[in-house]
Amino acid sequence: MKNIKRFTARLTRKFITLLGTVPNTPVFAAMMLAATIFVPFAAADEGEDLYQKQNWRGAFEFYKSRIDADQGGWEDCYNAGNCLFRMGKYPEARLYYLRAKKLSPRSRDINYNLQVLGEKLSLPDVPQSALASLGDLFTEDEFRTAVVVVTWLFFFAAMLHVFTKSELSLWLAAALFVTGAFAWGALYAKMNGGPTGGYGIVMREEGMQSGPGASYKVIASVPAGMKAAIYDEEEGWLFVRVAASSGWIRKSALEKI
């Protein structure tokens, strides 16, 4: 598969070179269509080549440029995390893996790498409620799609009962109503149930202060790589909750997921 992608990328570059010499022809239009199909393979091939040559920094910069330009998906975040892991930058790698997980929450590779990183960083286990764990398994778009589908099915079952007076259609409509209510609630929680400032990763070991300033008492030590829920900001300081502790840390010590 990798060889096919490399061949396709080289073929695309040759096509584009050829097209530059024969504009305004039907062949030009056809080849441009082919180029739009094959260019993503060429881009992926470039990052993969850098990674295979163990040019971790070059590969990371490539994937990061795609992410910053809104051209990358979860795969680019995942690949960027792999590069950072190879460079020994574990907190940064965890940041990019969590960004990938946000887009593809059920990926086995992402979840396995996060587990490995948690062990390397000696991060404590943070228990989650069953509802929060379930919400983490699906993206916001997936919940939105489920809401639309279940709502339409409910109306269909309700109309079926009106016309047929079938007991089965009544039970089906009731089940879909309960499922739809759960889906609506899950979607609302996904969109509005989190902390007001979102989540971030602490990039270095940081002291948590009792107030927004270095003069306040240190109440806890936050290890690098920990996930923090952000609730407030004041003069370069963030009020966060990390595991069971809440307090203020420097904004510069945290990167948002």
Characterize the main sheet.
Answer: 5 strands, antiparallel
Oligomeric form of this entry?
single chain
Spell out the CATH superfamily of the largest domain: Tetratricopeptide repeat domain
CATH-derived architecture of the largest domain: Alpha Horseshoe
Helix content: 55-70%
N-to-C CA distance: 32 Å
Assign the structural class, choosing from mainly alpha, mainly beta, alpha/beta, alpha+beta, or little secondary structure: alpha+beta
Summed up, the helix count is 9
Quantity of strands, as a count: 7
Estimated radius of gyration: 24 Å
Q: What is the 3D shape? A: globular
Strand order of the largest sheet: 6-5-4-1-7
**Sequence of secondary-structure elements:** HHHHHHHHHEEEEEEE
Binned strand content: 5-15%
